[in-house]
Specification:
The protein is α/β, with parallel strands linked by helices. The protein is built from six helices and six strands; from the N terminus they run βαβαβαβαβαβα. Strand 2, helix 2 and strand 3 form a beta-alpha-beta unit.
Length: 168
């Protein structure tokens, strides 16, 4: 099995720009929701997130929410942001992500997956043959089990808890 090493490692989604994505050849970005776009406890898309999504669209990047969440939260956010979505995506299994990518008419070289977890989001991207963009989790203080999980992901994040690495 390939190692789940991110193609790009960023502090948060706001460091990602349409120009940066296009420079990598990416036109389609599948995005994790929980702790990537918004903390688990937030149920409304804030202004900064809405502006970022609008900027990506204006920059020619198609966005899609790809979430493992089993509740109604992905649908809520997708509606608020005017995006399509899939919940219960079963990441790191690649089946759903590949189906979405193909249904949209994109190749792996034009696609990236962004998320906060190495063993779900990044591994899914690796299995799909697309670029993986890993961001620091927005909030881990509410769930101590997540803190443990993120600790075990440190070797794949370059060993940095709060640092950032961006490879292009």
């Amino acid at each position: 099995m390939p190692l789940p090493v991110p193609t790009v490692l960023l502090h948060d989604i706001y460091e990602l720009t349409p120009d940066g994505l296009r420079g990598m050849g990416v036109r389609f970005l599948m995005m994790d929701l929980d702790n990537t776009l918004a903390p688990y406890h937030v149920h409304e898309a804030g202004g900064e997130l809405r502006r970022w999504v609008d900027g990506m669209r204006r920059g020619g990047i198609e966005l899609f929410i790809l979430s493992n969440n089993h509740g109604g939260r992905p649908e809520e956010f997708a509606r608020q942001l005017g995006l399509d979505y899939v919940n219960r995506a079963k990441k790191p299994r690649p089946d759903t992500a590949l189906k979405v990518m193909r249904s949209r008419g994109y190749s792996p070289s034009e696609t990236a997956i962004i998320g906060d977890q190495i063993y779900t989001d990044v591994l899914c991207a690796v299995r799909c043959g697309v670029r993986s963009i890993c961001v620091r989790p927005i909030c881990i203080s509410r769930n101590p089990l997540l803190a443990v999980r993120y600790f075990f992901e440190l070797p794949f994040r370059g060993g940095k808890k709060n640092g950032k690495r961006q490879d292009r």
